[in-house]
Amino acid sequence: MNDKGSPRIIISGGGTGGHVFPAIAIADAIKAKVPGVEILFVGAQGKIEMEKVPKAGYSIEGLWISGFQRSLSFRNLLFPVKLMHSLLNARSILRKFKPQVAVGVGGYASGPLLDMATRKGIPALIQEQNSYAGVTNKLLSQRVQKVCVAYEGMERFFPAEKIVLTGNPVRGSVAQASDRAAARAYFGLEADKPTLLIFGGSLGALSINEAMAQNTDFLRSNADVQVIWQCGGSHYEKYRNCAAAQLMNVKLMAFIDRMDLAYAAADVVCSRAGALTISELCLVGKPAILVPSPFVAEDHQTKNAQALVDKNAAIMVANGDTITQLLPQALELLKNETKRNTLAQNILALAKPNAAEEIAEQVLSLVEGG
To answer: CA-CA distances (angstroms) from residue 363 to 20, 27, 99, 170?
Structure first.
């Protein structure tokens, strides 16, 4: 345990990089303001946070929890058991760590931990990344002290007096501008060729991967365009030997650790419409084609993407149209400099570069009783 007087803060959430990386950014911002702070993460066993959080230098405890399947699944039979187990485990973690503030960033572990923390009277803050709030955060908002959001108009989901518009935190490295030529050299790309970055989030996306795998001839006939393709770790074995991955103008990767360089190398980005990805695209000001996942709660990715489309800050392709439309639209955008510049300017105007620092200030105000 740390010295008496140093704050103890617990941060819970994860499941995907979209929750984990912002959580780490918040922790880094808190630590920068209060170097003596003690931070403990709570995540879901077997999920990405159990690897990424220790790699970032923080301790983490894992709960035996998973999401409720919206389709019929035998796994749902275990959900009540896992939930009860996680609530009891969360109570034990809180009793041992004695945090002064609990922070929930979304994801499987966030619900049980924040539920138990608020029941114990621990000041709490939640972060809602999306433009459409999920059920768990809507319920928790009635009991926490602050709700940090990334979009205007969230009063329809949360008590207005608790809302703080901060934006979504992004990985610190992404905020640092990188040289395009150096970035392309890092990926083994040619310095002067139009470059497309295509990825489906930290876990990968089947429809986006198939848009690459099923369009080998299209990619071959447009050899003047080079592609960085992140397929996701769970998809890598399936696609590593496909014809598209063997093309000289395609660089297939399971996971990109240096997203700052990937963004810097790209002229156009094709991706899912998760909150983290959108926040990073805003920060780097990249023209983007978004393919919202239809497999998320409340269809929130479509709502995220539509918020940008309405501001002429992105293009949206429906998941069902990805195989036939994604690459042709990307190529068309690569050839249209005027359109690219318009999208880049409009998406950059939506950036909130100080989100992590602003959330850190809100967390520390709760430590001080604010």
So the answer is: 17, 10, 12, 17
80 Cβ neighbours under 8 A, 6+ residues apart: none
Interacting residues of 301 by C-beta distance below 8 A, sequence separation 6+: 130, 272, 273, 274, 290, 292, 293, 294
Q: What confidence category does residue 71 fall into, taking pLDDT thresholds of 50, 70 and 90?
A: low
For residue 301, say whether it is annotated as part of any ligand binding site.
Answer: yes
Q: Where are the beta strands (DSSP E) in the chain?
A: 8-12, 38-44, 59-63, 101-104, 124-128, 146-149, 163-165, 195-199, 226-230, 250-253, 268-271, 288-290, 315-316
171 annotated to a ligand binding site: yes
Domains of the chain by start residue, with CATH: 8-168+354-367 (3.40.50.2000), 173-348 (3.40.50.2000)
Q: CA–CA separation, 132 vs 136, rounded Å?
A: 12
3-state DSSP call for residue 22? helix
Residue 200 annotated as lining a ligand binding site: no
pLDDT tens profile 113-160: 999 999 999 999 999 999 889 888 999 999 999 999 999 899 999 999
202 is in an annotated binding site: yes
Question: Was 16 annotated as part of a binding site?
Answer: yes
